[in-house]
Amino acid sequence: MADLRMPENARGIVIFAHGSGSSRFSTRNRRVAEYLGQQRFATLLLDLLTPDEEAIDVRTAGFRFDIGRLGPRVSAAADWSASRADLEALPIGLFGASTGAAAALIAAAERPHLVRAVVSRGGRPDLAGDALSRVEAPTLLIVGELDDPVSG
User: Fold this and answer.
1) Range of the domain at 116
2) DSSP structure string for 80-108
3) Is the Cβ–Cβ distance between 119 and 140 less than 8 Å?
4) How many percent of the chain have pLDDT more than 90?
């Protein structure tokens, strides 16, 4: 599931990859998406887990760290965006939070011809593994200095 918001005369599209039990309804990411919309960027808030996977993950946390499952889903969202007539001309940026950051970086590595930028907010870029060395897009990693699991 995903929510697409398309302002008039969009300058680009930002695909949001949520992680660690979050969804397209994340308050933080919706605020960022709202701001980007005011700046004339289209946004696609993407759920990386299906409803069935989410129901299992809530109990077991079994899917939120399955980066091999999540990365290709962000790549597929970039492919979808590039294939739509109303979006195909827009540069694509990826915004990842938590484990979604690793998924976004994997997608950037897999789709260097599509992805123009990556931003990770409080993310887990370490989970992207060897894909990190293949990312060609400019990348911004935003990490709080006291966020030990991420910055340590």
Assistant:
1) 15-37+71-144
2) HHHHSTTTTTS-EEEEEETHHHHHHHHHH
3) yes
4) 56
In this structure, what CATH number is given to the domain that contains residue 99? 3.40.50.1820
How many angstroms separate the first and last alpha carbons of the chain? 33
Residues 6+ apart with CB under 8 A from 78: 15, 92, 94, 107, 111, 114, 115
Interatomic CA distance for residues 136 and 116, integer angstroms: 8
Q: For the chain, how long is the longest CA-to-CA vector? A: 44
pTM of this prediction? 0.88
Q: What is the DSSP string of 27-68?
A: HHHHHHHHHHHHTTEEEEEE-SS-HHHHHHHHHH--STT-HH
Say if 43 falls within a structural domain: no
Q: Which residue has the higher pLDDT, 77 or 99?
A: 77
